[in-house]
């Protein structure tokens, strides 16, 4: 495939392209940095060609909303290649280290999210009840059954379904019909040479709940924010959106949306490890569980769910 990719880049006018493979994401896509000529990035989606027009379509929506994304220089639909602007290699995650004040970058990420939510969402697949439940069921199948080898009793299975249904209803109780990136977190937000936020990995966007991307950012599987900073950023988002919603109501929306996402992520991390051989994602399970327990312990109606997960995980 390298040969075909290089041939395409040469056809675009890049002589003897020198490709440096970059750490891929959780998908079947591969990324390369072009070391010579004027540089750039190339995405190889040849294993999933149908994702290329989707990527381009979502990119055009974001550009219409003036959201900073890597510029698309060229693409080849039949081969599954996209030639992109190189925005560097600094992620928001790189600012979450000791000795660096990450707050200004998180403020920018919140401001960017408010802009992202002005992106037209009409025609995108909806994050409806069926899809929310389907995602949470990944946890039952891949985390509990496949990864932990748990055999659920009939009552436990029913309790899980009831908990999932309750969580889905809470997610759907907040404003809907909003552009949702679905993976708006510290590894998918880059910082360009001007320190501006560049949004990447947006091709799985859907139309859904107000707080979904906010949760992705602030209850990130890779970064733990302290409680005071978390609350400040949640309310900053609400205020920038101009929402007249009580703190308690908004926090409940945020908590239950986070719970839905983290239950899904448990299943996805286990599936990546077992089915795709990407064992490194198992390292992120403890943080994901911690978020689930933090929220579950706040709401008595979730006792059954948290008790089951704690019993399976051992003393936590």
Q: Mind explaining what this structure looks like?
A:
Helix 3 packs parallel to helix 7 (227-241), helix 4 runs antiparallel to helix 5 (154-172) and helix 9 (285-296) packs antiparallel against helix 10. The protein is 47% helix and 11% strand. The relative contact order is 0.12. It has helices spanning 2-11, 51-64, 103-116, 129-147, 154-172, 212-218, 227-241, 247-274, 285-296, 303-313; strands at 19-22, 30-34, 40-44, 72-76, 81-84, 178-180, 189-191, 197-199, 206-208. It is globular and about 65 Å long. The strands form three sheets. The protein has a five-stranded antiparallel β-sheet, with helices on both faces. It has a two-stranded antiparallel sheet with strand order 6-9. The mean pLDDT is 93. It is α+β, with helices and mostly antiparallel strands and 316 residues long. A hairpin with a 5-residue loop joins strand 2 (30-34) and strand 3.
